[in-house]
Design goal:
The chain has 180 residues and is mostly helical. It has 10 helices and no strands. 28% of the residues are buried.
Length: 180
């Protein structure tokens, strides 16, 4: 791939203030089958993209390059999480952490990040979904101890000492197994 094309696309992805220029450049990248996940992360980070466009283009790029799914779903989730005051964006962040997890269920990172979305001030439906994801996903991850440890902290924080102790014990057991 010509280095000049990559440099041009990166510049447009970083600096575009017009959606037409940004979208045209993405089409050029996809048409040329440019396999560079960092370039697409730059594209997805452009402030010109609306919430719906961010979701649409994440899906489009991931459809084109399946090997980037985990990284780009995780990246998109983190972009939504940056706006944690908007509850609808928290739902979007959770959705993409879940997609990242489903694309690579051995990786505990999406589960840990999803738990950081938990809203301790308000009882929102996403809180239930977060805990469901962790409870069903923990059996699939390679390194369980960290997830159990974070669940222990979570339950202790919300005042459920008994469940916190149970998860702390599980974290210790899994940590010993993982370090053998």
């Amino acid at each position: 791939m010509p280095e000049k094309l990559l440099q041009y696309l990166e510049k447009v992805f970083r600096e575009a203030t017009c959606s037409d220029e940004l979208f045209d450049s993405l089409e050029i990248a996809l048409r040329n089958k440019i396999k560079n996940k960092d370039l697409y992360k730059i594209f997805l980070s452009n402030h010109v993209l609306s919430k719906d466009e961010l979701m649409m283009f994440t899906e489009k790029i991931c459809e084109e390059f399946e090997e980037f799914r985990f990284d780009l779903y995780y990246w998109t989730a983190s972009l939504f999480q940056l706006h944690d005051k908007d509850l609808s964006l928290i739902d979007n962040a959770f959705y993409y952490y879940q997609k990242a997890f489903l694309s690579n269920p051995e990786n505990n990172k999406p589960l840990l990040s999803a738990l950081t979305l938990y809203n301790y001030d308000f009882d929102i439906p996403t809180n239930t979904y977060i805990l469901q994801l962790l409870n069903t996903g923990i059996d699939k991850v390679k390194y369980k101890s960290t997830v159990y440890n974070e669940l222990a902290r979570h339950f202790i924080y919300i005042g459920n000492e008994e469940l916190g102790k149970t998860y702390r014990k599980l974290a210790e057991e899994k940590s010993r197994e993982e370090n053998q």
